[in-house]
Amino acid sequence: MPDIPVKYWIMVATLGFVWGSTFLLTELAIEDLSPLWLATSRICLGSILLTLFWGLRGFKLFPEESAWGRMTFVAIFSSVVPFFLIGWGQQYVTSGFAGISMAAIALMILPLAHVFLPDEKMNLRKVFGFVVGFIGVAFLMGGDVLASSGSSMETWGRFSLLGATACYAVCSIVLRKMPAADPVGLSAVLLLIGAAVILPIALIVEGLPPAIPQDTLIVIAVLGLIPTAAANLLRVRVIREAGSTFMSLVNYQVPVWSVVMGALILGEPLPATMLLALLLILSGVAVSQYGALKRMFTRG
């Protein structure tokens, strides 16, 4: 396994915090906006912001060859489809199931990377580390992991979130295998394609969006700027430069920050198993990335 520079660890930690906070913002936004229009707003706003940044860099993209087919696939299945599925599914499932489904991305990526990425082969230490981390997430969510929300649509809500999980895992592999590209240009194009796909769908299916309160507009602006535009740029860089398996470490942090933000902002109680869960998650990360961590500290 190649050395993982410190900057990528910082990027992964940042993404964990940003995406962990997104569940809370999504819960607030879907009170006034449908899941389809919420996904559309995020993607369109994020694409505008990243395109402006891309323009300042001269609209660089591929230095040699293009991969428009794969870019279209990743654009649709890493933003359009999962954004809608998560927003729709969160209406019918518990927060515990939402958290555990996002953590499952790491376990899905392991066998996919082993088969399709020669430099990210699976081994017993890596599998053990990821399983320990997953158990830590299960402890963190407690009995709410498989608890019922009581909704008649709960089964479909769970399938919706698992579908989003599968989308993220597959797209991580496809994105890793794309030819060399400018990370800003690639991030911008992915969101532009996503916007071109989802905006007409939203207009045809639901018509123009309703009047939205100012507080919700602020939430949508934050979702478009940070978890969508900025985080998409970081995600592309980490996957392309540090690998899909390393990027999947983000998904163990997301439930942690989701629980912490719920406690800090909504006053939700922190689970009694929080410290044990954190210990298991960090231990899993340390075991799965032992070689990279050892080389990083030895070199430092």
UniProtKB/TrEMBL annotation:
<feature type="domain" description="EamA">
    <location>
        <begin position="156"/>
        <end position="287"/>
    </location>
</feature>
<feature type="transmembrane region" description="Helical">
    <location>
        <begin position="272"/>
        <end position="293"/>
    </location>
</feature>
<feature type="transmembrane region" description="Helical">
    <location>
        <begin position="127"/>
        <end position="150"/>
    </location>
</feature>
<dbReference type="InterPro" id="IPR000620">
    <property type="entry name" value="EamA_dom"/>
</dbReference>
<feature type="transmembrane region" description="Helical">
    <location>
        <begin position="68"/>
        <end position="86"/>
    </location>
</feature>
<dbReference type="InterPro" id="IPR037185">
    <property type="entry name" value="EmrE-like"/>
</dbReference>
<feature type="transmembrane region" description="Helical">
    <location>
        <begin position="36"/>
        <end position="56"/>
    </location>
</feature>
<keyword id="KW-0472">Membrane</keyword>
<keyword id="KW-0812">Transmembrane</keyword>
<feature type="transmembrane region" description="Helical">
    <location>
        <begin position="217"/>
        <end position="234"/>
    </location>
</feature>
<feature type="transmembrane region" description="Helical">
    <location>
        <begin position="92"/>
        <end position="115"/>
    </location>
</feature>
<protein>
    <submittedName>
        <fullName>DMT family transporter</fullName>
    </submittedName>
</protein>
<feature type="transmembrane region" description="Helical">
    <location>
        <begin position="156"/>
        <end position="175"/>
    </location>
</feature>
<keyword id="KW-1133">Transmembrane helix</keyword>
<dbReference type="Pfam" id="PF00892">
    <property type="entry name" value="EamA"/>
</dbReference>
<feature type="transmembrane region" description="Helical">
    <location>
        <begin position="9"/>
        <end position="30"/>
    </location>
</feature>
<feature type="transmembrane region" description="Helical">
    <location>
        <begin position="184"/>
        <end position="205"/>
    </location>
</feature>
<feature type="transmembrane region" description="Helical">
    <location>
        <begin position="246"/>
        <end position="266"/>
    </location>
</feature>
<dbReference type="InterPro" id="IPR050638">
    <property type="entry name" value="AA-Vitamin_Transporters"/>
</dbReference>
<feature type="domain" description="EamA">
    <location>
        <begin position="10"/>
        <end position="141"/>
    </location>
</feature>
